Amino acid sequence: MQGILYEEPTVWLFLLVSVVMGGWLAWMAGRAIAKTWRPAWQLVVYMLVLGLFVRFIHFALFEATLLTLHYYIVDVIVLMAFGFAGWRYNLARQMTTQYRWLYERTGPFSWKARESTGKPA
Fold first, then answer.
1. Which of 62, 91, 98, 118 could hold 34 in an S-S bridge, CB 3.0 to 4.6 Å?
2. Residue 119 maps to a domain
3. Which domain holds residue 73?
């Protein structure tokens, strides 16, 4: 996997920087976008910028290549996965707590419309 997903001497550095640190930041960015009811396309823009910061951390701390398209794309894909998961999780939570009379949660990332009780109003 070295050379495909990461260029550091060990996978643990990739997991620490890209997955743990970058993933947490991406999750929090997705959470912030969901909490302010912004559209998902803004998350893409934020993850592209966050990918630059993750590449810089790899470069500054572990002597990786700073400007490499291949590893930048790998980092951005990891960040987008965490970012969209955080966005969808928090959006589902908001929809089911703020509009609990309309929606019910069906899983950590989804919701559905509540079924009517059948009583006339």
1. 91
2. no
3. 11-113
